[in-house]
Amino acid sequence: MGIIHGLVGVFWVGIHFNNEAFLLPSMAKAQKLADMPMLRMMPKISMVGAILGFLTLITGVIFFLIRFPLDPGGWLADPEARTVLVGLVMVLASLVIGMGILRPGAEAFGKKAGAMSPMDPLPDDMKAGLARIGMFLHISTALVVGALITMILAINGGI
Predict the structure, then answer these.
(1) CA–CA gap between residue 103 and residue 79 (Å, rounded)
(2) Fewer Cβ within 10 Å of end Cβ, the chain: N or C?
(3) Measured between alpha carbons, how far is 76 from 24 in angstroms, rounded to an integer?
(4) Half-sphere exposure of residue 93, counting CA atoms within 13 Å on the CB side?
(5) Neighbour-count burial of 72, counting CB atoms closer than 10 A to its CB (0-12 exposed, 13-18 middle, 19+ buried)
């Protein structure tokens, strides 16, 4: 279960890095839809991110319960378990942002983009919405990377 969790988690981190490296820079510079062809793919990217996030959460919880006995008091006393719990909080916060803000925003912008011509200028409200999505994507990425760091710390004995 740990290997599956690790693989799914790496892909989830990877989709965040992809968004940071390719999606966000094109969003920031876009003046028209043709400047940002990935906008039309935002709903699909968001769906993949949500699936990977939930798979990371589910496999992580299962792995945690296999690895540590069902004793919440013991979890807080054990540095490794405590560190994993900090990572779990970060994963949950990222999923709340993803499902509550990023996914609905991506779906709305994907629909708007689908109705636009590639050479149409992006309306100001759409640019403002993309900037908002970008800000929350930065926060989500920071949380996911923070969770990855806590998992690395946990493997090495915890904090």
Answers:
(1) 34
(2) C
(3) 38
(4) 18
(5) exposed
Rounded CA gap, 144 and 140, in Å? 6
State the sign of the Cα–Cα–Cα–Cα dihedral 87, 4, 98, 35.
Answer: positive
Tokens 């769906």 locate to: 47
Which of 106, 93, 102, 104 is closest to 136 using CA atoms?
102
| Angstrom distances, CA of residue 9 to CA of 36, 76, 87, 144, 145 | 27, 23, 12, 9, 10
pTM of the model: 0.86
Full DSSP string of 88-154: HHHHHHHHHHIIIIIHHHHHHHHHHHHTS-TTSBPPHHHHHHHHHHHHHHHHHHHHHHHHHHHHHHH
For residue 129, give both structure tokens: 């919405």
- The DSSP secondary structure of 33-84, one letter per residue, reads GGG-GGGGGHHHHHHHHHHHHHHHHHHHHHHHHHHS-S-HHHHHHSHHHHHH
140 and 16 in contact (C-beta within 8 Å)? yes
Percentage above 90 pLDDT, the chain: 42
